[in-house]
Amino acid sequence: MGLYQRWRRLRLAGLQACALHTGREAAGSTPPRWLVERLGLFEELWAAHVKRLKSMAQKEHRTIQITLPGGQKVEAVAWNTTPYQLAKQISSTLADTAVAAQVNGEPYDLERPLETDSDLRFLTFDSTEGKAVFWHSSTHVLGAAAEQLLGAVLCRGPSTECGFYHDFFLGKERTLRGSELPVLERICQELTAAAQPFRRLEVSQDQLRQLFKDNPFKLRLIEEKVRGLTATVYGCGMLVDLCRGPHLRHTGQIGGLKLLTNSSSVWRSPGAPETVQRVAGISFPTAEELKAWEEWREEAELRDHRRIGKEQELFFFHKLSPGSCFFLPRGTRVYNALVTFIRAEYTRRGFSEVKTPTLFSTKLWEVSGHWEHYQEDMFALQPPGPRRDNPTSHPTDTLALKPMNCPAHCLMFTHRPRSWRELPLRLADFGVLHRAETSGSLGGLTRLRCFQQDDAHIFCAPDQLEAEIRGCLDFLRSVYAVLGFSFRLALSTRPSGFLGEPYLWDQAEQVLQRALEEFGEPWDLSPGDGAFYGPKIDVHLRDALGRPHQCGTIQLDFQLPLRFDLQYKGPLWLSPFQVVVIPVGPEQEAYAREAQQGLRAAGLVGDLDTDCTLTLSRRVRRAQLANYNFQFVVGQREQSKKTVNIRTRDNRRLGERDLTEAVQRLLELQSSRVPDAEEIF
Fold this sequence. Notes:
Mean pLDDT is about 90; it is low at about 1-30. The chain is built from 21 helices and 32 strands. About 35% of the residues lie in helices and about 25% in strands. Helix 4 (about 130-150) crosses helix 5 (about 180-195) and helix 14 (about 465-485) crosses helix 15 (about 500-520). It starts with about 30 loop residues before the first helix and ends with a helix. With about 675 residues, the protein is an alpha+beta fold. The radius of gyration is 32 Å and the shape is globular. The strands form nine sheets. Strands 2-1-5-3-4 form a five-stranded mixed β-sheet, sandwiched between helices.
């Protein structure tokens, strides 16, 4: 019972609606009621799960084929054999070092029985996926320790590229003191020494809400994230947490664990934001690896850019403007030199520099889709209300500081009609951006609330796309070569909750993959890591100590052109609006339909405008604004002679032509793919 000797009584104001209680009920070693009830329900559900699993193993008893890396096939028993058992058959070393498995490409617990014929791969700590599993399991250990030591209400606990963190709530007025961190770390170490197993359990939504009825943060996550009829939870000792997994077999696989920092963070939700405590840490399979990391960290602290910036009087940060950098004269010189370098590269590569506003109505972000997906990371403000001298004036829109430049560049593209001759249109912007990063995530110049970046957007036709992607990759390689950076590329594909049609994503991902293969540099596949609006190529750099940093990115966005209705006047052979036939009056409608049918029979795009409620000139103008390459106007004269009077979208009048000859000429222009069909017709 030594793990329960430090319970504290906490009353969490503002969360009474969820009957939230933490801490011990009275002095002594008794765990709090809510924890005992949660664990009791989990054990009850676990017993039923074990019974069902045993029944399935008997009912579905059959031999299945498991394909290992390299193509070797081994036999297993459905609903009985686990990946861990197969790892032991291969080698004891693999069984000891494996942290999880991948079954048919999906993450999988080592102790979870296999169900059908499968491709099996083992993950170790040496791989990126293995580290993610290892550190995610470690954050569950941290969560269990926080519950036991502090009576914490757990919020979320992900792995990161360099470790893990856990956010938890201690009450409105309670924060975690630095002096408590060593004690919390010792509890973590006791939990790892106990080698407590991780147990995966699938539960219904009702059972999920019952398990976490005393935790409003989990209830919010269930409401926002759980879409299916069931979800998975993991038990580990007295901890029960909502999680997709997978996890380690047991906590004893964590040989070395160290807690590094504690800070405050903000839990964002539809209601008022809550201040939560964030503890970050690192862990390794062995104590020796942890010791080597600590030595490496000492060296890293000597090279910390924040320390160097202060010592060399380059820049500094101040609590009165958190997440924003003050560049001193020497630092400003370095900054300006970098801008000059990138500006020269932009000019050499055909980019045009522009400047756009910093403050926009949130209506812009609603159109772009960012307000739905990115609102929590934006700074929004309400302008002053109606003036006293004009109380009848309408209230102004909510405004937001721009976190990125792309919607503004879309406005710049669409502020006037664009021709295919202007494509590709390459716009570059060094404008100031603001993002509402939580205080716990800020990290010097690598994570800021206010920053500028060499940000550019290329508007191009579909047939120009691959060439532009190759140009961007060459741009990256040239810049990083000058700066002395080595890099590695990753193709990030569509995530859950993506916008648009799957077939468009497939096409876009194929374009990026072909460009990467032609580029010739090594690259990795990052399934599900794309932005909500399109796939991307991420560029990962390593600093002087070999630490990875996600830096440049090439994003392919096919949603913004649709959302902003971005159009250009394309050549005839690519145009979805080639010809519209316009009868002068109802008497010519039958002949107009004949002309339309002739166009379509020849394989051309031919439309018909018989809206006689508008004047002829207005219908012609409407067709030109809709970007029809040609308008065939037919009146009484044209009807009698079987001709058409031809105009172009630029309002050039080509005169009267024989209908059959006009159709034949359009076919010639289309088959030759000329860019200027209207001019040479």
